[in-house]
């Protein structure tokens, strides 16, 4: 069975963006970018909400044409364009770049169906869509790229929840710049 994997950079106090929606505090060097490239290339699909899709599609489709782009960025642009993307939105009318548009009311059944199919894992990007999937009990692994900064407030990695989720730490990996991967999976996964 495929797993749904939620990966984002996060501050030490648990935020994925600051109060002004800025992401400029995250440390992403060549080593970390290579990790993101490898992880994305290993996915059968990426799940996005509108905001994450618009953020990613504003840059990555043409990043490989930028003469000043680093090799890891050129590589990610290629990967991003090839990996199928499912975009859940009730406001978008059109998506491009190997993407398929679905409505939010299709989220639970679509993701359950994807998980039941054979194949490689599926990544989810963005805290809003991930939050909805977490509340539905559909996220299997949480990959937190913890940055050595305290933001004080912002958008949290985890949504408010009505019940606890027991997790098991399965991997830690230090990166340059003080970033640490914390990889958790559900402690009591349901089949």
Please, could you describe this protein's structure?
The chain has five helices and ten strands; from the N terminus they run ββαβααββαβαββββ. The protein has 191 residues and is α/β, with parallel strands linked by helices. It has a single domain (4-55, 83-186), classed as Dihydrofolate Reductase, subunit A (3-Layer(aba) Sandwich). Strands 5-4-3-6-1-7-10-9 form an eight-stranded mixed beta sheet. Helix 1 (30-41) runs parallel beside helix 3.
Order of helices and strands: EEHEHHEEHEHEEEE
Strand order of the largest sheet: 5-4-3-6-1-7-10-9
What distance lies between the first and last C-alpha atoms, to the nearest angstrom? 9 Å
Shape: globular
Radius of gyration: 16 Å
Q: What are the key terms here?
A:
globular, Dihydrofolate Reductase, subunit A, 191 residues, single chain
Ordered list of secondary-structure elements with their pairings:
Elements: E1 4-11, E2 15-18, H1 30-41, E3 45-49, H2 50-57, H3 71-82, E4 85-88, E5 99-102, H4 107-116, E6 122-125, H5 127-135, E7 141-147, E8 154-156, E9 167-174, E10 180-186
Parallel strand pairs: 1-6, 1-7, 3-4, 3-6, 4-5
Antiparallel strand pairs: 2-8, 7-10, 9-10
Helix pairs in contact: 1-3
A few lines on this structure:
The model has no long low-confidence stretch (mean pLDDT 96).
């Amino acid at each position: 069975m495929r797993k749904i994997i939620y990966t984002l950079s996060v501050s030490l106090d648990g935020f994925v963006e600051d109060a002004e929606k800025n992401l400029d505090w995250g440390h992403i060097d060549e080593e970390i970018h290579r990790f993101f490239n490898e992880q994305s290339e290993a996915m059968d699909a990426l799940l996005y909400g509108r905001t994450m899709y618009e953020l990613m599609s504003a840059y990555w489709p043409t990043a490989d044409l930028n003469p000043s782009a680093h090799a890891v960025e050129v590589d990610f642009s290629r990967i991003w364009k090839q990996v199928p993307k499912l975009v859940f939105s009730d406001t978008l009318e059109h998506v491009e770049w190997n993407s398929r548009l679905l409505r939010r009311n299709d989220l639970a059944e679509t993701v359950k169906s994807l998980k039941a199919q054979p194949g490689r894992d599926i990544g989810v990007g963005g805290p809003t869509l991930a939050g909805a999937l977490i509340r539905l009990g559909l996220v299997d692994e949480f990959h937190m790229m913890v940055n050595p900064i305290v933001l004080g407030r912002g958008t949290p990695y985890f949504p408010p929840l009505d019940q606890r989720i027991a997790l098991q730490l399965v991997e830690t990996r230090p990166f340059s710049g003080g970033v640490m991967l914390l990889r958790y999976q559900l402690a009591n996964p349901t089949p």
